[in-house]
Amino acid sequence: MHVVPSVIEIEENDGMEQLAERWLADRDHLRAVAYRMLGSASEADDAVQEAWIRVSRADTSEVENLRGWLTTVVARVCLDMLRSRKSRREDALDGHAERVGEGDPEAELALADSVGVALLIVLETLPPAERVAFVLHDLFDVSFDEIARIVDRSEVAARQLASRARRRVQGAPRPDDAAIARQRAVVEAFVAAARGGSIDALLAVLDPDVVLRADRAAVPAGAETEARGAEVVARRASQARARHGTLAVVDGAVGIVVAPRGVLRGVLTFTFAHDRITSVEVIADPERLRALDISVLPA
Question: Which residues form the RNA polymerase sigma factor 70 region 4 type domain (predicted)?
């Protein structure tokens, strides 16, 4: 297995000394780039490892900005991984659960906190090229000329990718603050009641004719995807008791994102009438998640 060189290996291979020393000096930066693009510490390590394999085989004699060049190599590896992840035909929940569960959970959580869980949640909804363009330009100040070569687009197109991503990260214009505040109070009461398993408290915030709908990716095989009536929906909600729910504005209304350690696994959207919930939709299908406009609310 080809591994990132140790100090001993550097000393034993004079031909690779300069490149390997620079690689070691920039490895934390490169891992930070990979983590922001991939949202997974173990995948970031894999990306950095693969990038070293490519770097060690390349001719760097004419590279003027070595750190910038190393960053672009890691970015290309991450873009390949994001595209591969998107194209794999796998169940959305199973795939995300595997990514969340691997490695050291405490280390993963520390990394997520350092980046910002809210940012990771929104980045998870972006197409691969948009995510790469935004991360490289807005977070690491890589030029659009270089980004264009990485994503195989024109410089103008690269700017457009970053601009679209930036609008998603910043969030769509919200309804007036009073409407958001009312919705937030209702959803917070719903979350507290669901986590506490209180049917009575749930009935207090649910419309008698409330409807709950879930897409196929959000429920076990063979399970019902629809429930009607406050008592039925209250029982379903009390049994779920999601521990990783975060309040967010989803397509202009207050909802809940389920994103343990910043990995987006599902979203609950709500409709409201007279300060009660009239419908709940549970979304876990990755294509539908990517289409949502999510802006996480401050605590």
Answer: 122-168
CA atoms in the 13 A half-sphere facing the CB of 85 = 25
Sign (positive or negative) of CA dihedral 228, 230, 232, 234: positive
Q: What is the CA radius of gyration of the chain?
A: 22
**Architecture of domain 177-296 in CATH?**
Roll (3.10)
Q: Please tell me the distance from the alpha carbon of residue 145 to that of residue 135, in angstroms, as a whole number.
A: 15
Fold of 7-170: Butyryl-CoA Dehydrogenase, subunit A; domain 3 (1.20.140)
Cβ–Cβ under 8 Å, residues 255 and 187? yes
Beta-carbon contacts of residue 106 (< 8 Å; ≥ 6 apart): none
- Chain Cα centroid distance, residue 240: 22
Rounded to whole angstroms, the Cα distance separating 43 from 141 reads 23
d(CA 48, CA 40): 12
| Residue 92: per-residue pLDDT | 37
pTM above 0.90, yes or no: no
Is the separation of the CB atoms in 235 and 210 below 8 Å?
no
Torsion of CA 123, 126, 132, 133, to 10 degrees: -110
Ramachandran class of 205: left when φ > 0, alpha when ψ lies in -120 to 50, beta otherwise: alpha
Residue type present at position 299? A
- Where does 13-154 have alpha helices with state H? 17-38, 41-56, 66-87, 92-101, 105-115, 117-124, 128-134, 140, 144-151
Q: Over the chain (299 residues), what is each successive 10-residue block's mean pLDDT? A: 47 62 89 90 91 85 82 93 68 40 56 67 85 92 93 93 84 70 94 91 95 90 89 89 76 87 86 94 88 76
CB 116 within 8 A of CB 252: no
Q: Pull the structure tokens for residue 120.
A: 């990771």
Domain ranges of the chain: 7-170, 177-296
